[in-house]
Design goal:
Layout lengths: L1 H28 L6 H18 L8 H14 L13 E5 L6 E3 L4 E5 H4 L5 H16 L2 H25 L11 H6 L4 H17 L5 H14 L14 H15 L16
The protein binds zinc ion.
């Protein structure tokens, strides 16, 4: 009896192992992940819609000009961009909502109410750097792929494996899905830490990132949290991690550069 039982257990265990190997193969194959080309198409499509539907601040607005200047300074620190053909754009939506987000492929949008809260260029640089990491590390595409795998379950995964095809269907993606898909804690931490390094390399003070978290926590009240706070109630933990990173570097950072943006509209 004991022998039979242990054999059965062995068979069960082997079955589990096979299944795990199979799943791992699928995960490596990234069959649900949109390609960079798909990401560029989706991002551009959604960005065009947003610019059409929303009230945008004009290119001549000081906030738009400042945002674009800081973005190009941050991007000048990226060495591997040639390998990643992202098509960045930087715009500000006129809105009372405290938000900023990036779309796959490169478009970045800030809301005027958020940018009006910033008192230094370094704070603006912090949110920009965070969003740029989401784009460069393809966080949306990976989150989407993980979500699909979870939702579709093993049967479909096995079918995909058999058919050896990519299940990503660009036509089924709505613009809403590009903006509202939540990122995991892991991706948000990566956006914080790589964003922080990007700021430092570009000559900004990473204290700007700490300021942003604190300002937003105070300002947010009961409203929906902006993208970089979404799903992550432990902003105290995030602040601590940035502070530890700064401490480890054991160096002086340049003073934050003051800005004075309009406080309304
Ligand atoms: Zn984020």
């Amino acid at each position: 009896m004991i022998v039979v039982n242990s054999k059965r257990m062995m068979v069960q265990r082997l079955g589990g192992v096979c299944l795990s190997v199979l799943m791992a193969m699928v995960v490596r194959a990234d069959m649900f992940k949109p390609t960079i080309k798909d990401q560029l198409t989706l991002g551009k499509r959604a960005a065009t819609e947003i610019r059409k539907k929303e009230k945008m601040l004009p290119d001549t607005d000081i906030r738009v000009a400042t945002m674009r200047r800081i973005a190009s300074r941050l991007l000048s620190t990226v060495k591997d961009d040639a390998k990643h053909p992202w098509e960045y754009s930087f715009d500000i939506v006129k809105s009372k909502e405290l938000n900023a987000f990036s779309l796959p492929g490169g478009p970045v949008f800030f809301y005027s109410a958020l940018i009006n809260k910033f008192t230094t260029e370094d704070q603006l640089a912090a949110v920009l750097a965070h969003e740029l990491v989401h784009v460069r590390k393809e966080h949306w595409a990976y989150s989407y792929a993980n979500n699909q795998k979870r939702q579709l379950g093993l049967t479909v995964v096995l079918m995909v494996l058999k058919a050896n095809q990519n299940l990503f269907d660009i036509a089924s993606i709505t613009d809403e899905m590009l903006i509202t898909l939540p990122y995991s804690r892991k991706y948000e931490n990566e956006a914080d830490s790589m964003g922080c390094d990007m700021m430092i390399q570009a000559g900004y003070n990473p204290q700007g990132m700490v300021d942003v978290f604190e300002t937003l926590r105070k300002a947010m009240g009961k409203g929906k949290p902006p993208e970089f706070l979404s799903d992550h109630p432990d902003d105290a933990g995030r602040i601590k991690r940035i502070q530890e990173r700064m401490k480890k570097l054991n160096r002086e950072f340049p003073a934050q550069r003051k800005v004075s943006f309009p406080t309304t509209d």
